[in-house]
Design goal:
Blueprint (H helix, E strand, L loop, with lengths): L3 E3 L6 E2 L13 E3 L4 E4 L13 E3 L4 E2 L17
Parallel strand pairs: 1-3, 2-4, 3-5, 4-6
Subcellular location: Membrane
Protein name: Putative leucine-rich repeat domain, L domain-like protein
Pfam family, one: LRR_1
């Protein structure tokens, strides 16, 4: 079982994949310092165990999805 995804500083571009929302055991998701663009997927709201979500230093647009407010374990955004 993987609980961390560290994909920071990899020059990844394009939208954040919706399928990341299926990794429901994730505790930490680090996507910062890339070239992600577009909105933050609402599917990330399914990551109920998530404590750390780092999306800074990308080219994301739009509001933070309300679904993320349902993640009561989230400590770092």
């Amino acid at each position: 079982m993987h609980t961390c995804r560290e994909l920071y500083s990899n020059n990844i571009s394009g939208p954040i994949p919706n399928d990341l929302g299926n990794l429901t055991n994730l505790v930490s998701l680090d996507l910062y310092l890339n070239g992600f663009s577009g909105p933050i997927p609402v599917t990330l709201g399914k990551l109920s165990k998530l404590r750390i979500l780092r999306l800074n230093n990308n080219s994301l647009t739009g509001p933070i999805p309300m679904q993320l407010t349902n993640i009561t374990s989230l400590q770092v955004l």
